[in-house]
Amino acid sequence: MTTLPMPADLPEPAINPNAQVVLAKRYLQKGPDGEPTEDARSLFWRVATAIAAMEAHYDKSPFTPEALARAFYDLMTGMRFLPNSPTLMNAGAPLGQLAACFVLPVGDSMEEIFDAVKFAALIHKSGGGTGFSFSRLRPKKSRVGSTGGVASGPVSFMRIFNTATEQVKQGGTRRGANMGILRIDHPDILEFITCKERENELQNFNISVALTERFMQAVEKGEDYDLVDPRDKRVVGSQNAAEVFSLLVRKAWESGDPGIVFIDRINRDNPTPALGEIESTNPCGEQPLLPYEACNLGSINLSVFFDPEAEDGIDWKGLTETVHLAVRFLDNVIDASRYPLDQITEMVRANRKIGLGIMGFADLLYLLRIPYDSTEALSLAEKVMETIQGEARSASKTLAAERGPFPAYAESVFGKRNLGPYRNATTTTIAPTGTLSIIAGCSSGIEPLFALAFSRHVMDGEKLVEANPHFVAAMQEAGAYSESLMEEVTRKGSIAHIGMLPEELRDVFVTAMDIEPVWHLKMQAAFQKYTDNAVSKTVNLPNKATKEDIREIYWLAYELGCKGVTVYRDGCKAGQVLCTGEGG
Ligand code: CDP
């Protein structure tokens, strides 16, 4: 389907061996015999041309599709920016579904519930992940009018979604990921909070409780709060808010599940309240969406913008140019994508949400020799994200001038307040970049490294050994590099307790477990401040962390303006629905 011939002088992408393995397993188009019909170069050219071809729809475009295809190719193969996995897999290919994130409504009838199961299956097949709020379902044991029976309630229906997901592997390779959300005031909330208690239960779900402002206030005051039947908003019971909050904390301490989202805050940032209320996010929590809405994401690899010649070590001009090109890319993705349902196409085309984010932040800090757990790192995070958000909005304005604002602009908060016009209802999101970061060879999202050196199992038992290249270079520079050091680091993951290394280096080359939980949270909040959508981040806690520690993290997240929190206490359970490369 590629429309443009591949230029003879197209450079080979510089792909590391890990990326080669991941691309070959999952991203390269394959023939009927299962053998790849393309290589990395033709993959990136396929994507670049398919996305650049959309430029022809717009008269005022300053680019020819040919010139833009080349610019997109260089953008991706220079590992400055990568679009989310479905775009890499499906652009210019028969499937043509390019978005990673979807939210589907689940209505309170058999028809609507099973429609949602079917729609989710179609989305999973195309490589997307789905989020659902089950809050509209009548509580367990409510009467069912047509049969005189009793309802089984949200949790029981979630098991059906879970089983359906199990049977449909995404795009043949990626396991379907779901987010299940229930409001704190739903009568079945206690069952929901404990629904993943048993091992292997609801394996294809991440779950989160939607906390309201009213609930948080009741916790503070030690009051009871109302449980409400979603059908008629009748108060059908009450709970002590502090006790339910303690249960949430205990469950998160035991297993990491459920997470929490601050649903009122999310809705305060809803750019198009006239089109509906936001009830759910995508599976990893970084993208709140309206029912039937989808969003495509893309991530800038910050480590590439390290510039030792620049005053503060960052090539801001290069970063700005990349943001502008990336926003054009992501806006074109919306036109190029074929969505599995008409309702989704309609919603996506009305709002044109995109989610530009970053990866390689921890690598950048290593290169700049700034410890992750420092105020300097927080300032850098804010400066980077403020720049990206500002430039992304400016790029979206430029596109609005060329192509018109997003169709729902007039009824959006921007239209009402005379801000804009913008081409996109949102422009920034920070994704986990589980697989993208492997392809780009950088640290994932805004996370610190999990280990400085480790061996990793990737799909079908294949094993990859990795040492962070910036760490290796720093050790060589300091004259500290040796085989035995590397063996020790691979065993321990961290250098925090390798006393023979200079303290300065031990402060800079920190890993997730070396960092106090509160710094994880502060970093999430710093990025959230300048992100339209939400931020994917796990607050890692050591095994010895207490429930009190988790309670503090939850309150701090509330106070610092985060849209949700996910905590993970080391060793608290064997497996979780990880959105990482290994998760497939
Ligand atoms: O790096 P990649 O583009 O593959 O994905 P990510 O940044 O780790 O995850 C972004 C989003 O893709 C998630 O929040 C999900 O919505 C979706 N996803 C999924 O549906 N299934 C997976 N196995 C991984 C991600």
Report what the structure shows.
This protein is α/β, with parallel strands linked by helices and 584 residues long. The protein folds into 3 domains: 17-97 and 288-416, Anaerobic Ribonucleotide-triphosphate Reductase Large Chain (Alpha-Beta Barrel); 101-281, Anaerobic Ribonucleotide-triphosphate Reductase Large Chain, CATH 3.20.70; 444-583, no CATH class. Helices cover 40% and strands 14% of the residues. Strands 1, 2, 3, 6, 7, 10, 13, 14 and 18 form a 9-stranded mixed beta sheet that branches. Helix 8 (213-221) crosses helix 9. The radius of gyration is 23 Å and the shape is globular. Mean pLDDT is 94; it is low at 574-584. Cytidine-5'-diphosphate is lined by residues 84-85, 100-101, 128-129, 174-175, 177, 282-284, 286, 297, 431-436, 579, 583-584.
Helix-strand blueprint:
Blueprint: H1 17-27, H2 40-52, H3 65-77, E1 81-83, H4 85-90, E2 101-104, H5 110-125, E3 129-133, H6 153-167, E4 169-170, E5 174-175, E6 178-183, H7 189-193, E7 205-211, H8 213-221, E8 224-228, E9 235-240, H9 241-255, E10 259-262, H10 263-268, E11 280-281, E12 288-289, E13 294-301, H11 316-336, H12 342-351, E14 354-359, H13 361-368, H14 375-403, H15 413-416, H16 436-440, E15 453-458, E16 462-467, H17 469-477, H18 483-492, H19 503-508, H20 517-528, E17 539-541, H21 547-559, E18 564-565, E19 567-569
Parallel strand pairs: 2-3, 3-6, 6-7, 7-10, 13-14, 17-19
Antiparallel strand pairs: 1-13, 2-13, 4-5, 8-9, 10-18, 11-12, 15-16
Helix pairs in contact: 2-3, 5-6, 8-9, 9-21, 11-14, 14-20, 20-21
The structure holds cytidine-5'-diphosphate.
